[in-house]
# Entry
Amino acid sequence: MDKQTIIYGIRAIKEAIISDCSLNKIYIQKGLKGSEALNLIEIIKKRDINLSFVPIEKLNKLTFKNHQGFVALTSPVNFLSINDLSNLIDNKKNGLTILILDNITDVRNFGAIIRTAECTGIDCIVIQQSGSAPVNGDTVKTSAGAVFNIPICRVSHLKDAILLLKQHKVEIIGATEKANQSIFESDLNKSLAIIFGSEGKGLTKSTIRLCDKLLKIPIIGKIESLNVSVAAGVSLFEILRQKQNNS
# Structure
């Protein structure tokens, strides 16, 4: 990832500030008048963050996305190491829920999944260093800033993280439409890690071999599968529902 990452949009930048993310500089469009924009400018000034009011052309050069008049330069997200993940597992002890993403390369899907994971109280997201979508401005925007509120562990090989979780008696669940058992018929009130694969290929064979259980979301329509971010949303909220009902 580049030394500086561009994030943009009112909500994403506000969430970054609230989360004490290290922002190097914020470029703000001259002449903004909306209440949300003025409120964010006031927050930026109170936090004494380096800012610059610039013409919209400057912002458009930084990103062609819908920046809403705000573009910030921030250092990359600090990823957890495999050792950090081990410490997180030890500290949590009971009721751990880990989300593992196996070759999710679409940035918008990645951001949407991060947002849902944060909303459902996932303890950590695990991704692979190669073959995964980057954490960039699009990710931050799509996640509505949730990327700053949830630990993300980046490993060289997913197998290392999965084997570590197995050592700690965490059940490994693979989400795939090829499974026989429905996620709604499975006991999820336990320490678990659920894995989602890429939208095109699904879970890799090597990942499936490491799973303790395979689960699916039942579909009665003619389309055989869901968008991966939608599938993750359905599954993570089912995990949350079961854990809350049994707490």
